[in-house]
Specification:
The structure is a homodimer. Chain A is α+β, with helices and mostly antiparallel strands. Chain A is built from 10 helices and 4 strands, in the order βαβαββαααααααα. Chain A has 2 domains: about 70 residues, 3-Layer(aba) Sandwich (Glutaredoxin); about 120 residues, Glutathione S-transferase Yfyf (Class Pi), Chain A, domain 2, CATH 1.20.1050.10. Chains A, B: Is involved in the conjugation of reduced glutathione to a wide number of exogenous and endogenous hydrophobic electrophiles.
Amino acid sequence: MEEESSVKLHGMWASPYVLRAKLALNIKGIDFEYIEEDLANKSELVLQHNPVHKKVPVLVHNGLPIAESMIILEYIDETWSDPPHLLPKDPYLRAKHRFWAAYLQETMMILSKTMTNGGKPTEDEMKEYWKKMDMAEELIKAELFSNGCPSFQEAKPGYLDIVLYSFLGTYDVVEEFYGFKHITAERYPFLASWTKALSEVPQVKDATPSSVKVIEILHAMRKNYLQLKG
Amino acid sequence: MEEESSVKLHGMWASPYVLRAKLALNIKGIDFEYIEEDLANKSELVLQHNPVHKKVPVLVHNGLPIAESMIILEYIDETWSDPPHLLPKDPYLRAKHRFWAAYLQETMMILSKTMTNGGKPTEDEMKEYWKKMDMAEELIKAELFSNGCPSFQEAKPGYLDIVLYSFLGTYDVVEEFYGFKHITAERYPFLASWTKALSEVPQVKDATPSSVKVIEILHAMRKNYLQLKG
């Protein structure tokens, strides 16, 4: 039996997708119980609540499970409809935020999908990656930040900020793991300053895992995958 | 200069993604101007309005461009907020519809991404494909259609119906092109009857392209890709 208004988040501490759900709950000021899952040995609850992808995060609200991080963000914003809002009110701006969030997600996936091959992106993948990053730097700024201010300077961080931060907030980890300079203030001044400003917001800072520990687990995962491949 | 309340859809007649936008506009009863694009020679307008993906559909509403079919569906539902609604009102049901729409989109992509390799899915891809189809058959029915009725029997087709139909509405085309029995009433009675019921809704029927012509263009595309690969 679930009690009234119970909010539980099943997660794994190093997952950028779980970080999204944590950030959204923190920013909205929603109390929740966090349940750490052992991904090698998932609980019955995760298997039962997310039978399709069997992945975290799973948000369980009053016993009802919601899976997939981007869908969880929309659910949180629609269910707790008091401000701060994660998405803007205007439908056109909402579309733009959704568009760029999906774009950043795709860009992030270029690198993260290489993990099952030992975390070694091919030359073509890197070319695609830089092309998408260059475009994000130029066009998100031009379309959404024409006055140079990150959106959350006027309000709390929202949907797009959360997705950006889940990707670039731990860029030092990515640099260390993949062995290349990922975002530098010289090459991506806009993305770098946006990410830095986000990292200083208390609700964001408190939820961010330790870089050193994330690097450790990434190396362990790479080793596991390489062993699995023989 | 755009006049007040001008709605233009830039598309390509055989695209399932363009079909989604057409269906949404038809179902909502929104008058729009349809502009067919030559994909080999895209208009300045598409390049200017969707500089990132340079793809159709692009919806241009009062001069403002919206790209990506799923985002266009949300935009249409939020902008023209009178019924019929494409997404349910309840946040939990909205999350479920979004989840299954994204799932069907992923399933569809397993086959469609093989097009650049000449439209020949590998054994592993086919295995993944059938697994996802089996799960869709079982779980969408269990989670959303427990009484056996497709959602649109109570209202007009919505977001999830549109995404389902863009994938399976032309399944005879897919069967002919890929050379395997795709959805049969024996194997997928629920998905097959849902798709059939949708195909009989006038707003859907009117927007569906001719199977014969779609097969022609798919074969032409396969030939082009194979030639490009040398």
